[in-house]
Amino acid sequence: MKALQYTAIGTAPEIREVETPQPGPGQILVKITAAGVCHSDQFVMSLPEAEYLAAGMKLPMTLGHEGVGTVAELGDGVTHLAVGDAVAIYGPWGCGRCHMCAQGKENYCQNAAAEGIRAPGLGRDGTMAEYILIDDARHLVPLGDLDPVQNVSLTDAGLTPYHAIKGSLPKLGAGTFAVVIGTGGLGHVAIQILRALSGATVIALDVTEEKLALAREVGAHHTVLSDATAAATIRELTGGLGANAVFDFVGVNPTMSLAVQSAAAEGDVTIVGIGGGQATLGWGAQAYDVAVRIPYWGSRSELAEILDLARAGQVSVEVEQFSLDQGPEAYHRLHEGTIRGRAVIVP
Question: Are 62 and 147 part of one and the same domain?
Answer without folding.
Answer: yes
